[in-house]
């Protein structure tokens, strides 16, 4: 559980892609006999930060979002992080890496920011988490469910940047900015 407050900038998908990924995640939760997945999913996490001024960061991210059109990402593989985290691997593109670098610059994370060693430029694995804490003995069933519902590679449209606040086990949205039409 996160003890301190962490802000995380994330990419959100358009309605069609969001619905598709949310349904896939919900089906996995049912398979695992769990309650609904987090309302903060699905998304692509960009940068965590411990920046104090939430409104200033939201303003900065809004300027970036309004300066670029919605864009497509391609997920091309399934992956696992430690702790049983299943994700859809996003193929890095120059546009995605440039956006990530710009959000890192604007977010000014300190070296003590949680997860910054995993999300900083050069270390970031672009991904969309689908399930967490999947027991090892159920991973085969979960992979089968994903392969039943999804095909690889698949193109998804990113439509906005959102700023989330994670604190004391809770996640809440501080606001979002749509990409330019």
What's the CATH class, please? Answer: Alpha Beta
Percent helix, as a range, is: 25-40%
Total helix count? 5
Looking at the structure, the CATH topology is Cyclic Phosphodiesterase, Chain: A
CATH architecture: Alpha-Beta Complex
Q: Which assembly state applies to the chains in this document? A: single chain
- The helix/strand class is alpha+beta
How many strands? Answer: 7
Number of domains: 1
Verbal overview:
The radius of gyration is 16 Å and the shape is globular. The longest helix has 17 residues, at 15-31. β6 and β7 form a beta hairpin. It has a single domain (6-170), classed as Alpha-Beta Complex (Cyclic Phosphodiesterase, Chain: A), CATH 3.90.1140. Strands 1, 2, 3, 4, 5, 6 and 7 form a seven-stranded antiparallel beta sheet that branches. It contains five helices and seven strands. 33% of the residues lie in helices and 33% in strands. With 181 residues, the protein is of the alpha+beta class.
Which descriptors apply to this entry?
single chain, 181 residues, alpha+beta, Cyclic Phosphodiesterase, Chain: A, seven-stranded antiparallel β-sheet, 7 strands
Task: Give a brief description.
The protein is an alpha+beta fold. Helix content is 33%, strand content 33%. The longest helix has 17 residues, at 15-31.
